[in-house]
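Technical annex, item 7. During the second reporting period the consortium partners agreed on a shared format for inverse folding records so that results from different sites could be compared directly. Each record opens with the tokenized structure and is followed by the designed sequence. A conforming record, contributed by the partner at site C, is shown below for reference.
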């Protein structure tokens, strides 16, 4: 490392001198200079990720890890070579919609890049969905699947999105007991055979409601007999519209055509996107969305005019039924966020070794290293939260969960989604800055990373909607999720050696309990602090897992540093907010006046 740094320094100084000399002596026009930058190259992303490897080593049985490591290593290599090339091709060849053929016939064909199609094949053969449903490793299958997806996602050309919905659909169908009419679809969603593998959409959003699905959904389902319905409505955002099937929400019309409003009126439906002959299932693709990012991914507005569909789950239980899909897509969102965070950080680190400024590679500047170290800590924190969710989900799906671990999963799912998404945007932005002007140049591929990160706090529920979901989980379980959380965190810490960081975490847990007893229970305006509450829960949980890791690997001093730095921050923004603004109702009024006050002429 030192040798590399001094070599780089000499090379850099020589190049700058050479450029300076040319500037003074050459008079040729169009001299673009001799100096070129070396683009950062990444090593095998499994082998290089010591943090992920330590986590897996702690959580997986030794024999299992020995069994799956060759697979992880192979994927870790492919995602920085062959699969990464496909990723770049997906970005360069975005999907387009052919609405009419040359003769004026309406065709509604979405054309996608060959690289996008190849990603579908890779997803099947790598078993990226199948692993979770084959359950060859029981409760650990989700961890195995998520480890593969963690390596794959940053090079997937956004193929992680259809995979999220595909996994979510398989989960919904399996929770519904795999009805006979969905057996074939289920086997395709979970297949390893690229010729059979299906992807699914999740068409929830309509013009009237993004967050407020319950009141904003106006698609109507008319019963047609034999369990079939004809759907009529307009879906405003439908991601990965080239999917083979979709799950969606609609209101079933009574014989007189009336429908129930609100949540109780919504049911969930399964539909194949195409009829047997290959035509669209009475679906018109009105247009593809012109998005800030995720341009590799076809997202469309769809008109359903008599789309044949079948009910999944019970009538009027649509939101509750599709929430199983939301659980999975929110886990994928966290996974996508934490792996994207890792990728930009690795690129930033690699670049810091290559790029020189003021006579030295920038990795030799303490201020730059401090920036990278902060990014590393945030990346580790996102990774821990994501993989802990996968671990808890694995327990639930293999029937080995306790009541407490189920409650923990319910509480942490929205926390992880909102936390990791915010970190991804912040770290990706910082990562671009680490590249200076190059971070702003399209063909480096870096700006696309920031654009793609920006969707993470938006789709699958915004930060505020997810914060409210944390309150929903607390209220629906009458606070049991918090008890399970506290018990789990205290129990994990009791196995860790005494340190000042452990003390900080124990104090934070006590203060959070105090907040629940003295403020939350009596507050008239819980919503106002829902974000701070969510981040406080996330901070404590992440700290506890850092403590667990650092206790398990006492020889790894960097883990102790991570733990100490983590615990040195304000772990409880909710308590800080209550202390500084005890009366939230007043501050709410202040917020309104500050923000909405009309301009005084
Ligand atoms: O589609 C989109 C893009 C797809 C791309 C996916 C890629 C992801 C990863 C990619 C990686 C590369 S984005 C659109 C997504 N839309 C949303 O996320 C909607 C956001 N809005 C919400 O989440 C709201 O909170 C709603 C819709 C869930 C609120 O609905 P309601 O009807 O007002 O909620 P209720 O009445 O509180 O809940 C109805 C039922 C209750 O069950 P019961 O009736 O038994 O009490 C709730 O407990 O649903 C249950 N429920 C839940 N259960 C609601 N939320 C949950 C939950 N999170 N978990 C379990």
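Designed sequence (site C submission):
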């Amino acid at each position: 490392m030192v040798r590399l740094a001094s070599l780089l320094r000499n090379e850099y100084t020589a190049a700058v001198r050479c450029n300076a000399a040319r500037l003074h002596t050459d008079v040729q026009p169009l001299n673009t200079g001799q100096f070129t930058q070396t683009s950062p190259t990444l090593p095998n992303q499994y082998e290089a990720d010591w943090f992920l490897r330590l986590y897996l080593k702690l959580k997986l049985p030794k024999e299992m890890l020995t069994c799956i490591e060759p697979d992880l290593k192979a994927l870790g290599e492919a995602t920085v070579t062959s699969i990464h090339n496909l990723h770049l091709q997906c970005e360069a060849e975005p999907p387009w919609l052919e609405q009419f053929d040359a003769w004026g016939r309406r065709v509604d064909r979405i054309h996608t890049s060959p690289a996008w199609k190849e990603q579908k094949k890779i997803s099947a053969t790598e078993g990226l969905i199948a692993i979770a449903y084959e359950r060859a490793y029981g409760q650990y299958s989700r961890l195995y699947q998520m480890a593969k997806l963690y390596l794959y996602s940053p090079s997937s050309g956004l193929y992680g999105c259809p995979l999220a919905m595909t996994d979510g659909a398989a989960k919904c169908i399996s929770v519904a007991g795999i009805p006979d009419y969905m057996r074939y679809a289920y086997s395709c969603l979970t297949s390893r055979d690229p010729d059979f593998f299906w992807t699914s959409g999740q068409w929830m959003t309509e013009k009237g409601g993004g967050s407020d699905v319950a009141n904003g959904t106006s698609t109507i389902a008319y019963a047609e007999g034999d369990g079939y319905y004809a759907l009529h409505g307009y879906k405003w955002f439908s991601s990965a519209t080239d999917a083979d099937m979709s799950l969606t929400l609609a209101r079933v019309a009574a014989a007189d055509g009336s429908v129930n409003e609100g949540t109780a009126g919504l049911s969930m439906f399964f539909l194949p996107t195409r009829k047997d002959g290959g035509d669209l299932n009475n679906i018109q693709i009105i247009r593809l969305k012109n998005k800030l990012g995720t341009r590799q991914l076809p997202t469309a507005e769809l008109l359903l005019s008599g789309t044949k569909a079948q009910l999944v789950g019970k009538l009027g239980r649509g939101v509750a039924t599709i929430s199983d899909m939301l659980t999975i897509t929110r886990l994928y969102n966290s996974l996508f966020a934490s792996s994207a965070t890792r990728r930009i950080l690795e690129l930033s680190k690699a670049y810091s070794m290559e790029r020189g400024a003021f006579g030295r590679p920038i990795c030799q500047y303490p201020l730059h290293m401090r920036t990278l170290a902060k990014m590393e800590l945030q990346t580790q924190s996102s990774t821990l939260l994501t993989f802990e969710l996968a671990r808890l989900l694995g327990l639930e799906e293999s029937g080995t969960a306790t009541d407490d671990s189920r409650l923990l999963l319910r509480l942490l799912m929205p926390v992880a989604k909102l936390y990791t998404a915010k970190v991804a945007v912040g770290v990706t932005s910082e990562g671009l800055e680490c590249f200076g002007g190059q971070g702003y140049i399209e063909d480096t591929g870096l700006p696309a990373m920031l654009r793609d990160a920006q969707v993470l706090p938006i789709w699958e529920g915004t930060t505020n909607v997810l914060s409210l979901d944390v309150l929903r989980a607390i209220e629906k379980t009458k606070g049991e999720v918090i008890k399970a959380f506290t018990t789990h965190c205290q129990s994990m810490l009791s196995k860790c050696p005494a340190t000042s960081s452990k003390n900080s975490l124990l104090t934070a847990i006590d203060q959070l309990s105090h907040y629940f007893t003295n403020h939350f229970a009596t507050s008239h305006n819980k919503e106002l602090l829902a974000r701070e509450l969510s981040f406080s829960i996330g901070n404590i949980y992440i700290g506890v897992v850092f403590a667990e890791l650092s206790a398990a690997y006492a020889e790894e001093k960097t883990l102790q540093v991570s733990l100490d730095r983590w615990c040195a921050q304000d772990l409880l923004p909710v308590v800080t907010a209550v202390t500084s603004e005890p009366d939230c109702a007043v501050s709410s009024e202040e917020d309104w006046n500050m923000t909405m006050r009309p301009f005084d002429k």
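The longest helix spans residues 318-354. Residues 50-189 form one domain. All partners now use this format for quarterly exchanges.
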